[in-house]
Amino acid sequence: MRILVDANVPGAEACFGPLGELERRPGREIDAAALQDIDVLVIRSITRLDAATLDAAVARGSRLRFVGTCTIGTDHVDQAALARHGIAFASAPGCNAEAVVDFVLGSLLTLAERQGWRLAERRVGIVGVGNVGGRLQARLRAIGIACLACDPPRAEREGSEGFATLDTLIDECDVLCLHTPLVREGPHATHHLLDAQRIAELAPGTLLLNAGRGDCVDGAAMRQRLSGSGDITAVLDVWEGEPAIDPALRDLAAIATPHIAGHSLDGKLRGTHQIYTALCRHLGLPARLGLDDLLPQSPVSRLVLEGGLDAEETLRLCLRAVYDVRRDHDSLLRESRRLGMVAGFDACRANYPLRRELSTLTLELGEAASAHAAWLQGAGLRLA
């Protein structure tokens, strides 16, 4: 059995090597020709597996019978085309959700420090309350941050209680966090969910953070609002046209990162392991490798705090001990200017440095800092 795996999927040798002959290839180079002699394909979101690619691969005599994407999102895979050709499919829901929440908290606390406000004073609107948005909502509420949630599909299934409309969030929230999948058609389409009209309606001082899908925001309208009045703030991890993103919008975003919100080592290995277990089920084999077998010791596993900082300052310090979002912002600017946008964007992702999740850090609080214990635990830290 031949198994083709995206070159940036970690842990592939340990997971898939014992199951067959392993081949690695950069995700953007996986096309119909690459699939000709492949039985199993393991990809990430940069590989687009559409009907035309699959039809061409089958016409070439491809043996492909299983596709797994080590990602939460699945809009890069035409699942109907897979089913039509009798090819099994698996994704990794929730694999990097905690990492994305770390990214959101790190971004908000960085901008609070930079702009001189406090997170506790803000009301956050979460658009899309699935694996990521639900975890973000839980952590924010655990530390006393006021939240509103917008998720029309869930409201339709579960009832409207606990959910608000997007227009209500725009009217009432200081921060909007987008965590929606890309849906192009139907009653709950999210393509350009924030279109020119809604972007124009954002109140001065609003912070918009998009860590869902780039096409959910009208990039041209966002660029116009930021370059015109310049009275809102944007944190953008996802973009229209990736990797050929708009350099003007990149420069206008307060934090601009190359689609890496979920790129923790923990999240990546969790995604690899989820696809490994799905493939084992497909093959009727036992999954002999556990996630703990893949995860290394965290470089910073313990901090001791004696006091002198308030709760937000403490959380900011702890987040930066394991992940500093400013590094990724600086990397995208530097590499895209050095190599050009497309090559620089991809280089940032391909050469992404080691990053762990907040939950890998254990915090020991001295007596003077112990008053923050419940607040910090709610934010996602482990306490000794």
TrEMBL record:
- In which family does this protein belong, per the annotation? Belongs to the D-isomer specific 2-hydroxyacid dehydrogenase family. PdxB subfamily.
Q: How is the quaternary structure described?
A: Homodimer.
| Compartment(s) of residence | Cytoplasm
The record ties this protein, via InterPro entries, to: D-isomer_2-hydroxyacid_DH (IPR050223), D-isomer_DH_NAD-bd (IPR006140), Erythronate-4-P_DHase (IPR020921), Erythronate-4-P_DHase_dimer (IPR024531), NAD(P)-bd_dom_sf (IPR036291), PdxB_dimer_sf (IPR038251)
Pathway recorded for this protein: Cofactor biosynthesis; pyridoxine 5'-phosphate biosynthesis; pyridoxine 5'-phosphate from D-erythrose 4-phosphate: step 2/5
Alphabetized Gene3D superfamilies for the sequence: 3.30.1370.170, NAD(P)-binding Rossmann-like Domain (3.40.50.720)
- EC number(s): the record gives 1.1.1.290
Q: Does the keyword Chaperone apply?
A: no
What positions does the domain Erythronate-4-phosphate dehydrogenase dimerisation occupy? Answer: 294-377
Positions of NAD(+) binding: 151, 180, 237, 262
Question: Which SUPFAM superfamilies does the record cross-reference, listed alphabetically?
Answer: Formate/glycerate dehydrogenase catalytic domain-like, NAD(P)-binding Rossmann-fold domains
Q: Write down what this protein is called.
A: Erythronate-4-phosphate dehydrogenase
Q: Where does substrate bind?
A: 45, 71
Q: What class of enzyme is it?
A: oxidoreductase
- Protein role: Catalyzes the oxidation of erythronate-4-phosphate to 3-hydroxy-2-oxo-4-phosphonooxybutanoate.
